[in-house]
Design goal:
This protein has 6 helices and 11 strands. By secondary structure, it is an alpha+beta fold. It has one domain: Hypothetical Protein Pfu-838710-001, CATH 2.40.320.10. Strand 9 and strand 10 form a beta hairpin. The longest helix is centred in the last third of the chain and has 23 residues.
């Protein structure tokens, strides 16, 4: 993929805009529209560059209770909810155990510690971390889903906003792989509503509206037909329609 950005940022410089407590606004659309989106914002953002690379692979393993309490809290639209996961930055090998909490004001608070993802049982420091940062007991958590994706990270030149663009999303469970490679998923991360976000404005101008997309919940629905999913079915139908319609349009363009 052609990366049109003129200005880059290094990892240590991004400490100016960690936004561990933030408001997340999500968008998703067919990946064929991504080059146009990147082109119109290229002068307004820095792009993260590490060792001359701009796109980085991630791996995540999510945990939940046997009753799927965290998944169901999201499905049932509870304001306060949690996600617990191992996240691995595959290029560097760095791995973190993370707890994400959504509060009743819609803000996301993320805490994390360095952790070894190669084992699925929590060591004592990890147990202490989970038990102190969430209402869940580490002894009652099971691995429920794995995913992989590639990420582009942008930082606004005002250093008040971070944006992630996730590509090539795939879910892995019980030896099966479920792919959503046709989608680009954008998350705009700000301390307040993204009213001053150039990216959010450009997406709106292109007819792309914000829409919830939980990689954990979507993965559970796509990999477990028995799980309760009524609240997510409209989004799934929209995704299927988007993929089908844009794929047909692109095929027509190629043939014309």
């Amino acid at each position: 993929m052609d990366i049109p950005f003129r200005h880059t940022i290094q990892l240590d410089e991004m400490n100016q805009v960690k936004l561990m407590k933030r408001l997340d606004t999500k968008y998703w659309f067919h990946i064929s529209k991504l080059p146009e989106v990147l082109e119109v914002i290229k002068n307004d953002y820095f792009i993260l560059q590490i060792n001359n690379k701009y796109i980085f692979p991630y791996f995540s393993r999510y945990y939940d209770t046997e009753e799927n309490s965290m998944y169901l809290a999201h499905h049932n639209r509870r304001c306060k909810r949690y996600k617990i996961r191992h996240r691995v930055y595959l290029d560097s090998g760095l791995s973190f155990l993370e707890v994400k909490r959504k509060d009743n004001k819609g803000k996301t608070l993320k805490t994390r510690i360095l952790s070894d993802f190669t084992h699925q049982n929590f060591e004592q420091p990890e147990q202490t971390f989970i038990n102190s940062q969430s209402p869940y007991s580490s002894n009652g958590l099971l691995p429920t889903l794995q995913n992989m994706f590639d990420r582009i990270t942008l930082v606004s030149k005002n250093f008040d906003e971070r944006c992630t663009i996730d590509l090539n999303l795939q879910f892995i469970t019980e030896g099966e792989i479920h792919k959503l490679h046709e989608l680009a998923i954008i998350e705009v991360k700000t301390e307040g509503l993204p009213s001053n976000s150039t990216l959010a404005t450009r997406l709106r101008d292109a007819g792309i509206r914000r829409s919830g997309f939980s990689k954990y919940c979507m993965g559970r629905v796509l990999t477990d037909p028995s799980i309760k999913s009524n609240a997510f079915k409209p989004n799934i139908r929209r995704i299927q329609k988007t993929i089908f319609q844009e794929t047909i349009k692109n095929q027509i363009k190629q043939c014309s």
